[in-house]
Design brief:
Largest sheet of chain A: 6 strands, mixed
Structural class of chain A: alpha/beta
Mean pLDDT of chain B: 82
Number of helices of chain A: 13
Oligomer: heterodimer
Radius of gyration of chain A: 20 Å
CATH architecture of the largest domain in chain A: 3-Layer(aba) Sandwich
Radius of gyration of chain B: 21 Å
Mean pLDDT of chain A: 84
CATH topology of the largest domain in chain A: Rossmann fold
CATH class of chain B: Mainly Alpha
Low-confidence stretches of chain A: 1-12, 23-41
Distance between the termini of chain B: 45 Å
Distance between the termini of chain A: 6 Å
Number of helices of chain B: 14
Number of strands of chain A: 10
Number of domains of chain B: 1
CATH topology of chain B: ABC transporter involved in vitamin B12 uptake, BtuC
CATH architecture of chain B: Orthogonal Bundle
Order of helices and strands of chain B: HHHHHHHHHHHHHH
Helix content of chain A: 40-55%
Shape of chain A: globular
Largest interface: A-B, 35 and 32 residues
């Protein structure tokens, strides 16, 4: 047996997290509502956020009213997709961003080209670049920094303690678990012709390790093209994909047809799971939820087979 | 020999500029040239008014009104972002088209483009090595230097590969232009292999940086670059007079050209040098902007025939128009985002070229 996403892209278990998330936010937002009502009138800050994770943080801190533009990776929450899009993070346009007359540009490390960021800074708009670190500590660090630049230190501190609690709650059972760690192979696919597996140092590798599993390929860094022999040698118990990648290769049956996969435990027992890309690998405020979802997927698929 | 040529070129240029000024004007004031100037002028005006930020008349006069104070707001966008970029697009388009015209003339082959001389692959090779090896090695580069690093290495790569190609070709197949072409194919394949290796070694992030570099963009334009390129183009243009004259003889074939007294060897070095510098500069700052070097000389050839003396200057104008239109489209269609310019050079150039081709065939 295997777990797949239902039609709206959410696994059963995830709905449960969203309710949790909603409840969490309601608690976190109560004091903010009063604050926002006050600061909402006089705040003239206009933020352009380049990076899906940063946009999520801004929403989580209740500063979304100050957002005037986002990049194409800002897909969550849904409301962010209705803001003007400044395009792909690596191909920004200085005039396009300046046209939104921002007072602050928040960018992740991989935003560019450097010439454009320089032009924006020279035009008098401060550009804050936040490091991309695929660790829980990195998320906390980013929340602190974003909180500082958008004057939401108290909300940032609240969000931080709330996330730390959630994180510990999710991590505790994983750390206490005695069963052998399953070997997980992460497959990234943008088109049926190009299928890559995630080695060490990738965001997927970090998530797999957090979920108490082992990355089935450890011989290299970054993403490398999938070769049948390497897949068979890796002997993964589970194959993990992004929901988008799963769709591209043609669902579970498409994954099973990938060269070499049928000869692995994961292929034989159809243990193939997927999560939405930004949710799983975004390393934003949804990280505890994502880890919990991933852990449940792993546990369920291992038990059912 | 190469460096000698380069030095004499640099030293003797000012006097040559003065001597050839009337010719410079004559070549650029024929009837088709006037049409091109008109289109270019309208294009520049339209491009200057289009963009994400709306301009008012005030912004145009801002540099005159503010006494020494730095511009801000929409005036800054107009004078420091949009105008330099528009002029840069015009100049880069001209430089690419001229390189294309010269390469096609040298190889006597309408399918040749500056890439054959190793300029683009050399630049891409150097860029790939810089992105993957240098940033992978963990050496801390000061941010001021980082901005210049990639263009500088790409330019060095373009010029180096181009000159290596010439030396290797002269060593292996002395004085044969066909030999130069074949050596070019081999060296390009070699460069592609190095790029492939870098792509393999690259992390996900480096890979995306690399692929966006190869897509090409004019976003890095500023006044300094525009000024340097303008100066280089004027110098090269005046130097063209002697070059295009003998290139017409070369069209008869290498042997025939040698018989009428053309020093094919010297000509070849001059063309390679010009293409390496002009195209190398464009590629280093803008990444790979394809198609202009190939299609602009073609369009002109279909319009006015293959006389290099008229073809080269007109091709520059057509190239300038093409790149200006393509970049304006890239800038304005997806406001506030930007689309890679390479998509539009092909999108604009190819249909226009096909229409011209069909017309010519019918006329024959």
């Amino acid at each position: 047996m295997f777990d797949v996403l239902n039609e709206d892209g959410m696994p059963q278990s995830r709905r449960h997290f969203l309710t949790q998330l909603g409840a969490g936010f309601a608690v976190a937002c109560l004091p903010q509502l009063a604050l926002a009502a006050e600061s909402g009138k006089k705040s003239t800050r206009r933020i352009v956020s380049v990076g899906g994770g940063l946009t999520e943080i801004i929403y989580a801190l209740g500063a979304e009213k100050e957002l005037v533009g986002v990049d194409t990776t800002s897909l969550y929450p849904q409301a962010a997709t209705r803001l003007p899009s400044v395009g792909y993070a690596r191909a920004l346009s200085s005039e396009g961003i300046l046209a939104l007359s921002p007072t602050l540009v928040l960018a992740s490390e991989d935003a560019g080209p450097p010439a454009v960021l320089r032009q924006i800074a020279t035009a008098g708009v401060p550009v804050t670049v936040l490091s991309a670190n695929d660790q829980f500590e990195g998320v906390i660090e980013r929340i602190k920094r974003v909180g500082a630049v958008v004057d939401r230190d108290t909300q940032a501190a609240q969000l931080e303690s709330q996330l730390t609690q959630e994180w510990q709650r999710v991590r505790a059972p994983i750390l206490a678990r005695k069963t052998a760690a399953p070997r997980v192979l992460f497959i990234l696919s943008h088109s049926p012709g190009s299928v890559m597996v995630g080695g060490k140092g990738t965001s997927a590798d970090a998530m797999i390790a957090y979920a108490g599993a082992r990355n089935a390929v450890e011989g290299f860094n970054g993403f490398k093209p999938l070769t049948p022999e390497a897949v068979i040698a890796a002997q993964p118990d589970i194959v993990l994909l992004t929901a988008q990648g799963m769709q591209v290769v043609g669902g579970v049956d498409g994954v099973l047809k990938l060269p070499g996969l049928a000869q692995t435990p994961a292929g034989q027992k159809r243990r193939i799971v997927a999560l939405e890309a930004m949710f799983m690998l975004g390393f934003g405020p949804r990280l505890p939820q994502a880890l919990s979802a991933l852990d449940q997927l792993f546990t369920k698929t291992m038990q059912s087979a | 020999m190469l460096w000698q040529t380069m030095m004499t070129f640099l030293i003797s240029t000012p006097s040559r500029v003065a001597k050839s000024m009337p010719l410079f004007l004559k070549q650029l004031s024929s009837k088709p040239a006037w049409l091109c100037w008109l289109i270019l002028g309208l294009g520049v005006w339209a491009a200057a008014t289009m963009g994400a930020v709306t301009m008012t008349g005030q912004d145009w006069l801002a540099p005159l009104q503010q006494d020494g104070e730095p511009l801000s707001g929409s005036a800054y966008v107009l004078w420091h972002l949009r105008l330099p970029r528009i002029l840069f697009a015009v100049l880069v388009g001209g430089a690419l088209a001229l390189s294309g015209a010269l390469t096609q003339g040298l190889f006597r082959n309408p399918l040749a483009d500056p890439g054959l001389l190793g300029v683009t692959s050399g630049a891409a090779c150097a860029a790939a090595l810089t992105i993957v090896l240098l940033s992978g090695s963990g050496i801390e580069i000061p941010s001021a230097l980082r901005y210049w690093l990639l263009p500088a290495t790409a330019f060095a790569g373009a010029v180096t590969v181009c000159f290596i190609l010439d030396s290797v070709a002269r060593w292996l197949t002395a004085d044969s232009i066909a030999g130069l072409l074949l050596t070019g194919i081999a060296l390009n394949a070699l460069a592609a292999a190095v790029i492939g290796l870098c792509t393999y070694l690259a992390t996900d992030e480096q890979l995306r940086n690399l692929s966006f570099w190869t897509l090409g963009s004019l976003a890095g334009a500023n006044w300094t670059l525009t000024g340097v390129l303008l100066l280089a183009l004027i110098m090269v243009f005046c130097y063209l007079r002697r070059l295009t004259h003998v290139m017409n003889a070369l069209a008869l074939g290498e042997a025939a050209a040698a018989h009428v007294g053309v020093n094919v060897r010297a000509l070849r070095i001059r063309v390679i040098m010009l293409v390496a510098l002009l195209c190398g500069f464009a590629v280093a700052w803008c990444g790979m902007i394809g198609f202009i070097g190939l299609v602009a000389p073609h369009i002109v050839r279909l319009l006015i025939g293959p006389d290099q003396r008229r073809l080269a200057p007109l091709a520059m104008l057509v190239g300038a128009i093409l790149l200006l239109l393509a970049d304006t489209a890239a800038r304005t269609i997806a406001i506030p985002a930007e689309i890679p310019v390479g998509i539009f050079t092909a999108l604009l150039g190819a249909p226009f070229f096909l229409v011209l081709l069909a017309r010519m065939r019918r006329g024959v």
